[in-house]
Amino acid sequence: MADENTNSEQPIAAENPQGGQPQQPEAREGRGRGDRGGRGRGGGDRGGRGGRRDDRRGNRNDDDGGEELIEKLVHINRVSKTVKGGKRFGFAALVVVGDGKGRVGFGHAKAREVPEAITKATASAKKKMVRVPLKEGRTLHHDGRGHFGAGKVNVRTAPAGTGIIAGGPMRAVFESLGVADVVTKSVGTSNPYNMIRATFDALTNQTSPKSVAQRRGKKVADLLGRGGASEVEAEAAAEAIVE
């Protein structure tokens, strides 16, 4: 009986070590996978890379936010779309965005709610900003005309202290652009969309003496001196030009 007991106990004792030995490698493998996962496919490095992407995105957002853009809501209109079940109402927004230093853009968008439409229009305006050369940083270099559809606008440079002689959508454009003295006139339509596009047509045709001199291969003083001014006055005026 003692022999049978010892024999019966031996397999059990042998199985326990065999059963225990595979557990240690499995635990090591589990720790190994965890370590590898932490270094590679786990949350460690992937989370780190994700954090860097977030940082880069945050920097871009900070740069956009640090630009201090001037946003003007020009017009908002309720629109409807006829569908099978009836009509769906939404809103269309027209927004002008500028930095007050010679860059301006406009955008329009539609959405089901007013804030969303304004946000989409603002984002569209930021993507389509154009640079307009300014004289002394306060007015236009020369007179101009713009045309779009039935809208026609005339813009004229003005001396200091004149102010912005413009109304409605055109005033929003010049305030966002950073113009302090200008005289304008809109003829033909009061549609804000056509007025804005006609105004931008006139602004994109603006040129500065510096760009004209470079295109013609001359000096700025030579161009300014053709109006009867002396060479000293022309050179002084050329040095005072700020785009």
UniProtKB/TrEMBL annotation:
InterPro entries, alphabetized: Ribosomal_Su5_D2-typ_SF, Ribosomal_uS5, Ribosomal_uS5_bac-type, Ribosomal_uS5_C, Ribosomal_uS5_N, Ribosomal_uS5_N_CS, Ribsml_uS5_D2-typ_fold_subgr
Gene3D superfamilies: 3.30.160.20, 3.30.230.10
Extent of Basic and acidic residues compositional bias: 26-65
Keywords of this entry: Ribonucleoprotein, Ribosomal protein, RNA-binding, rRNA-binding
Any Gene Ontology CC annotation: cytoplasm
GO-annotated biological processes: ribosome biogenesis; translation
Listed SUPFAM superfamilies: dsRNA-binding domain-like, Ribosomal protein S5 domain 2-like
Residue spans crossing the bilayer: none
UniProt biased composition (Polar residues): 1-10
Biased composition (Low complexity): 13-25
PANTHER family with a match to the protein in the record: MITOCHONDRIAL RIBOSOMAL PROTEIN S5 (PTHR48277:SF1)
Family, as annotated: Belongs to the universal ribosomal protein uS5 family.
NCBIfam families (alphabetical): rpsE_bact
Domain notes: The N-terminal domain interacts with the head of the 30S subunit; the C-terminal domain interacts with the body and contacts protein S4. The interaction surface between S4 and S5 is involved in control of translational fidelity.
Function: With S4 and S12 plays an important role in translational accuracy.
Protein name per UniProt: Small ribosomal subunit protein uS5
Organism this protein belongs to: Novosphingobium endophyticum
Name of the encoding gene: rpsE
